[in-house]
Amino acid sequence: MNRTATARIAALSLCLAAPLALADYPERAITLIVPAAAGGNADITARLIGQEMGRQLGQPVVVENRVGAGGRIGTQAVARAAADGYTIGYAHVGTLVLHRFLFKQQLYDLDRDIAPIGLVAETPNVIVVNAASPYRDLKSFIDASRAQPERLTMTSADPGTTSEVGVKLFIAQTGAAVRQIPYKATAAQLSDLLGGHVDSMMENLPPLIGNLKDGRLRALAVTTRTRAASNPDVPTVAEQGYPDYEQSAWSALVAPAGTPPAVIARLNAAMNQALRSDSVGKELRSRSQEPLGGTPQDVQTQIRKELPKWEGIIKAAGTTLD
């Protein structure tokens, strides 16, 4: 047999074997890379959905936290992983949209190196003050900030996060004259707010629900278009006179570009089944997160919707980072 014929037979064998290999997927544990620290909202959400996806897939989904560079280290690890379905990533509006405009140095090409699996959940941010604060609504807080510009402070997570740019959007659309202070950890923000060292805080709602329920914090507004299920008495920013304000921390699952479509479809089906399950859906809603789901194309649609808004806000704020 000549070399050409041998090559053709080998290629045919690979083609025939590929469907069988995909039919057996997954045959071992899947790593879910989370570009955030353990214990935070992203980590908790990823572990919740990963556990249920593991049941649907018949193999464990193991969370691996890769922290650093505002989430870019973890996202880069996904982009560089083998495109075989055994490494996937947890992503959000920060890593999929905001980072395009926030960082001068791009560690990967989001359109070329990452393949979407599906949307996971939408999480509201919330503006809170210490329970001892004199401010009981958004108007009194904004009016006080305008009366003494830069005296009142508002903390957020570090650059590249939804709360960090959410504060910038808040300042731009409300005219609040607050001084923004970014923090690397929610716990540090919360400690300083409860200790009276800062005046207000914008952060994901789920980690703050306990302090709101026990009366240590007072919520002035949520940042989504509709009120949060866990705190329906808290009005939105839009309801309080700023109808164009809308901002949330939506999340998605992604895979390395080149992952076989059949594998993406299998992961997408498991993700949607997980989001529909009582164990995941009810828990997310109890934490004021709305399960999303849908197709990989829905992720692309969400990205395209968000790009023009955040490009303008970030460029106007002049917050491009190295």
Automatic annotation (TrEMBL):
Report residue spans for region: Disordered.
Answer: 278-299
A Pfam family in this protein?
TctC
**Span of the secretion signal?**
1-23
Please give the superkingdom of this protein's source.
Bacteria
Q: Does the keyword Translocase apply?
A: no
Q: Where is the composition biased (Basic and acidic residues)?
A: 279-288
Show the SUPFAM superfamilies listed in the entry. Periplasmic binding protein-like II
- Record family assignment: Belongs to the UPF0065 (bug) family.
Q: What is this protein called?
A: Tripartite tricarboxylate transporter substrate binding protein
| Species the sequence originates in | Achromobacter veterisilvae
